[in-house]
Specification:
single chain; Switch-associated protein 70; two-stranded antiparallel ribbon; mainly alpha; 7 helices
């Protein structure tokens, strides 16, 4: 185990930010997304929380739906099953899963948030991040 992981004062959020900084530049590139870098980081944290326990990390269809439903609910929107069914069809043609960069692109493209402004999307991402990540870390 790494020495800094064994410390009592280990800050998981700071560790996540360091890892994000190291990998995001290389993998995010210059993609034009509807979300900020901070929102992409929060999605990255959520992905790591929901992903399967094997490498390379992936998120399966059920977890994608869970996250997107929570996000839609947090934004005060209504779930559009047809949009998700279209995504599921695309996923069936590959591996029924997404990697973190694909999930960030999916959310950042605005496909599931049509009609929502960037601020509403950001608040939704923040609320889901708070519930799934920060509240768990507090426990």
């Amino acid at each position: 185990m790494c020495l800094f992981l064994a410390k009592d004062d280990f800050d998981r959020q700071e560790f996540n930010k360091m890892c994000w900084t190291l990998c995001s530049r290389k993998n995010m590139g210059q993609k034009q997304l509807f979300i900020s870098n901070d929102d992409a980081f929060k999605i990255w944290c959520i992905f790591n929380f929901l992903s399967e326990d094997r490498y390379p990390l992936i998120i399966v269809t059920e977890e994608i739906e869970y996250f997107l439903r929570k996000l839609t609910e947090a934004m005060g929107g209504s779930w559009v099953e047809e949009r998700f069914e279209d995504l599921k069809m695309q996923l069936h043609s590959k591996q029924q899963c997404l990697n973190v960069w694909e999930l960030i692109s999916l959310v950042g493209s605005g496909h599931f948030t049509k009609g929502m402004d960037q601020q509403t999307l950001s608040m939704g991402i923040n609320e889901v991040h708070q519930e799934l990540i920060l509240d768990v870390l507090k426990q």
